[in-house]
Amino acid sequence: MLGGDVPKAIAYLEKGAKLAPDNALMRVRLAEAYAAANRNAEAQKTIDDLLAMKPVAGYEPEYNEAIAAAKKLQEKIK
User: What is the 3-state secondary structure (H, E, C) of the chain?
Assistant: First the structure.
């Protein structure tokens, strides 16, 4: 996403989210990619899905990082 191909990033992140639906960091990165592509409704839906998730045991720090980033992004796209 940093100077890269946003549509390609979205495609990879969508595949990753399907393969690892419990990966909170993958979901927040997907939301960020949607926002970068001005697809704010999809970014918000992804954030809503993330906020509804429960952390996977052993991955609480990553989950908390993703939640913090999601809330920050949510404020930015409103």
Answer: CCCCCHHHHHHHHHHHHHHCCCCHHHHHHHHHHHHHCCCHHHHHHHHHHHHHCCCCCCCHHHHHHHHHHHHHHHHHHC
| CB-CB contact of 77 with 34 (8 Å) | no
Q: What is the pTM of this model?
A: 0.92
Q: What confidence score (pLDDT) does residue 1 get?
A: 46
What's the CA gap between 11 and 6, in Å, rounded? 9
Average pLDDT score over the chain: 94
Q: What does the buried/exposed string (b/e) look like for 43-78 if buried means 16 or more CB atoms within 10 Å of the residue's CB?
A: bbebbeebeeeeeeeeeeebbeebbebbeebbeebe
Cβ–Cβ under 8 Å, residues 65 and 32: no
